[in-house]
Amino acid sequence: MLEVVALYRFVPLDGLETLRAELLRLCRAHGLRGTILLAREGINGTVAGSSSGVAALLSALEGICGIAQGEVKHSQAEEWPFNRMKVRIREEIITLRAPEADPSRQAGTYVAPAEWNDLIAAEDVLVLDTRNRYETKVGTFEGAVDPGIDSFTDFKDFVETRLDPAVHRKVAMFCTGGIRCEKASSYMLSKGFESVFHLKGGILKYLEEVSPQDSRWNGECYVFDKRVAVGHGLSPGTWIACHGCGAPLNEAEARSEAYEAGVSCPYCIDGLTEERARDLRQRHAAFGAGTAVPDVEG
Q1: I want to staple 196 with a disulfide (CB 3.0 to 4.6 A). Which of 136, 185, 232, 280 is the partner?
Q2: Residue 288 pLDDT level (bands cut at 50, 70, 90)
Q3: What pLDDT, in 10s, does the model give residues 114-166?
Q4: Residue 237 CB contacts under 8 Å (≥ 6 apart), including other chains
Q5: DSSP assignment string, 78-128
Q6: Where would I find the Rhodanese domain in this sequence (predicted)?
Q7: Angle, to 10 degrees, between the axis of helix 16-29 and the axis of helix 51-65?
Q8: Whole-angstrom Cα distance, residue 247 to residue 263?
Q9: Burial track 194-220 (b if 16+ CB lie within 10 A, e otherwise)
Q10: pTM (2 decimals)?
Q11: Up-side HSE of residue 4: CA atoms within 13 Å toward CB?
């Protein structure tokens, strides 16, 4: 069984090139796979491997950036959820393109999973899903508003056009692992919203700690690796992903005539050229039904 660790922390970092090389050497030495993103604003990543290898990485990160003060979540996988190890330098560890959103300076109020149900049940609280539409289709909280965005940068337009600080005085937001919420909460506070809350540890921590009997979560949670989705207790989900476009597919979509393993699905078949289909079929025959894994979000 492989250990999977998702982590992030907003903390000022310098010497990124040196840090990148150091972390890549460490991860490869311990046989780890996954993605770590580095930026001047902090670190974000999901990595899988042996328990000892993951422990070595966390020990190093504690010395480098005090990762224990951020978010660190553990789960397991029976097969490798990533193909290889990548450490990349980015402008942001979660892209919003809003300099005023600085979680190291201000962020919303953390809400523990055990307290989340009571908060979102309140009539005066707007419950807001900050994830992209391909993630929200897999599952979300009861009564949550789906902004219908295709990328996190679109969240700014949603706030500008659909929300009003004078009307939406209490906002409770959530995302996969907590990182998007933390940055989104900082952005909303900078725009004059009064009370902004976010689920500590994100959906993953909620599904880990809250029993199915007490849960207000509907469906499964999309994750950025080959597992595609997880359920309560972070058990493997039922969704698969289209290798052609990466879209998550439920059982009905996987039975569609438009679905061809490794090649196409109902969401990409109309734009699929014969050349692209041929290349995908060749790749699928050579490497199997592996899913293309995007860089980590959360």
Answers
A1: 185
A2: low
A3: 999 999 999 999 999 999 999 999 999 999 999 999 999 999 999 999 999 99
A4: 138, 220, 221, 227, 228, 229, 230, 231
A5: SS-S-SSEEEEE-S-SS----TT--TTT---EEE-HHHHHHHHHSTT-EEE
A6: 121-215
A7: 160
A8: 12
A9: eebbbbbbbbbbbbbebeeeebebebb
A10: 0.89
A11: 24
Give the active site residues. 175
Q: Are 204 and 297 in contact (CB under 8 A)?
A: no
Residue identified by tokens 């090389």 is 21
Query: Is the distance from CB of 173 to CB of 196 less than 8 angstroms?
Result: yes
Rounded to 5°, the CA angle 46-48-53 comes to 115
CA-CA-CA-CA torsion for 218, 144, 241, 296, nearest 10 degrees? -120
